[in-house]
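Interim report, section 4.2 (structural modelling).
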Amino acid sequence: MKVCRRETFNAAHRLYNPTFDDAKNELIFGKCNNPNFHGHNYVLETWIEGEIDQETGYLIDLKILSDLINEEVLEAFDHRNLNLDRPEFKDLIPTVENIAVVIWNKLRAKLDSKYGLEVRLWETDRNSVFYDGK
Amino acid sequence: MKVCRRETFNAAHRLYNPTFDDAKNELIFGKCNNPNFHGHNYVLETWIEGEIDQETGYLIDLKILSDLINEEVLEAFDHRNLNLDRPEFKDLIPTVENIAVVIWNKLRAKLDSKYGLEVRLWETDRNSVFYDGK
Amino acid sequence: MKVCRRETFNAAHRLYNPTFDDAKNELIFGKCNNPNFHGHNYVLETWIEGEIDQETGYLIDLKILSDLINEEVLEAFDHRNLNLDRPEFKDLIPTVENIAVVIWNKLRAKLDSKYGLEVRLWETDRNSVFYDGK
Amino acid sequence: MKVCRRETFNAAHRLYNPTFDDAKNELIFGKCNNPNFHGHNYVLETWIEGEIDQETGYLIDLKILSDLINEEVLEAFDHRNLNLDRPEFKDLIPTVENIAVVIWNKLRAKLDSKYGLEVRLWETDRNSVFYDGK
Amino acid sequence: MKVCRRETFNAAHRLYNPTFDDAKNELIFGKCNNPNFHGHNYVLETWIEGEIDQETGYLIDLKILSDLINEEVLEAFDHRNLNLDRPEFKDLIPTVENIAVVIWNKLRAKLDSKYGLEVRLWETDRNSVFYDGK
Amino acid sequence: MKVCRRETFNAAHRLYNPTFDDAKNELIFGKCNNPNFHGHNYVLETWIEGEIDQETGYLIDLKILSDLINEEVLEAFDHRNLNLDRPEFKDLIPTVENIAVVIWNKLRAKLDSKYGLEVRLWETDRNSVFYDGK
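Predicted structure of the assembly:
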């Protein structure tokens, strides 16, 4: 069984690779390479796999899960510039793929090892990723 | 291949464990422990796994699936108080996790064994669960 | 110009008129007349009409508006039984129409008179109401 | 890791099996058997499984994926009559199950074999299918 | 005060004007001019304006409104070809604008004159219309 | 009658007033005052009021409307930093209110005067504005 908590955050980012020249950055990242940044409303689904606790009927207390997501993800990324404000993306391009991996690692480090963990992250209503650590 | 039918129902419930004292019920279930109940619009996705029937192009006739969900789930739970009106929750806390397990068991009992079955149940647009009987 | 803030709350209710006999309550309110209550995830859009403040670019600070909605509406109705827990519905049937009127009156009493006020309230994704005090 | 691109198309279709008599077509396909066709806004999620390219941070360039879906699926099906305009459904009933299989086959044929492929297709907001080629 | 009921139907249509030549039909209606038709999932919001009945707390019984919409609109248009199956569009192009006017007229003819009536109709999640009879 | 076209764009922005000191900017704009910017997926509904053209059944060709929105709004704002990249916000705080006014003015200047114009703009799924030029 899995439970899911949905949260949202808003952030600015720029996609570019400093080892590429301008033409290659433009070719690969297009409008996402705007040096002044653009931004998104990110939607995050955090899925926890485990067993139902017979005393509470909960797999995990969703309030505790929500607090964890707030502390680890929303405090870090909400209303931030991912490239400038966050050490995680100092040497990592903040694509939706990489953001999902970073989020998964941050949550995994704080989550009891008895639980499985998967994340789904939407950058727009057309683009999203799924990551489960594999 | 899997097909999915989405249905909705509205119900009242209260989360509490009669073996806990009031303070512990309050601590664990918070606002959900209101003795006068609160309620939700539940959204249920029922996923059926199987093979396409070559004569009809259907994995399962979604009208038949919808009728089954109506008889087994909506007739039982829609516009009901899960704690007071339903025997399934006489000794089971009606968390979204336990509701999903009950629904899965009710559908599994009536569904041809050649089909796989998974359910996803939303309690709010932020909280949901997935259950496949494992 | 108008700005809108969307908030949600979950509540239980029962539709019945104590001056009707059981048959008439059943005829008019159907499943909504369940004496043990049922419930909904209510979605509330609060619309404020006014002028943009040139210094801030805000019509109204949406954080202040959100705090007002939380204090006046969510604190009162979220995770509550509208019939049993709320004096507003002691002698008023908690239909979505009446809930919207009560919410509008509660917000109007606290909102600066320079602002116009409209509410839209969804009881399900199929049923909603609009009220502007007229 | 998987990335997902969501696209939409609008099409007409009719469900019937020419080897059935009228009564059996009516029994099995009901309103969907209207000889003059009806139609839907189809929503297609295309999921690609693979590894993140370290140079770009992309699993696959979603613009390239979107172009592929446009060329293979939207050019073929959008604003078309699936029964009359498309050779794929000359001898195949255009149920949502069969449409998903056809789409998966069309995309699989053009997609680099290093990628995994899954599709989810909605015919209405109540009916959808999932197919991964197995 | 206004109440709203949301319903959906699926239909096929073709946009063309028989007094235009092929080139002009193509120029104006583009892909929507496919002679074999295409289709949509239409979403209809029906808004009724009136006063709350003090005995019931209803502006209008939404079940009665839903039945009216089903009889007048869904029975007529759901799973139909608007051009071929419906007399309303024999000499009227079934654009979303004209469909909304036809629906408004059908509902207005059956609705008590004490109520105001507005409709909003979505053809896709990007295109919609609003009509109130003026 | 009105028709509506829904489009989306992604942008970065910062809310601050250079005539305020840091403490006042922080007090009024909070997290939105991050000097490194944050961003949103904006959703824009453009509503056109007019009469149905009897020859085409269109109030306005939605493809032409969509092209106009693309040229005037999306080309200007999509994947841009509203503060740094756009002259409209050189001396105007890019709140959702002001962005809506700027969009309305840009569309009004290019739209045939026979049409009425309203815009609704969402900054998040919780915050939106409506503007009709009055």
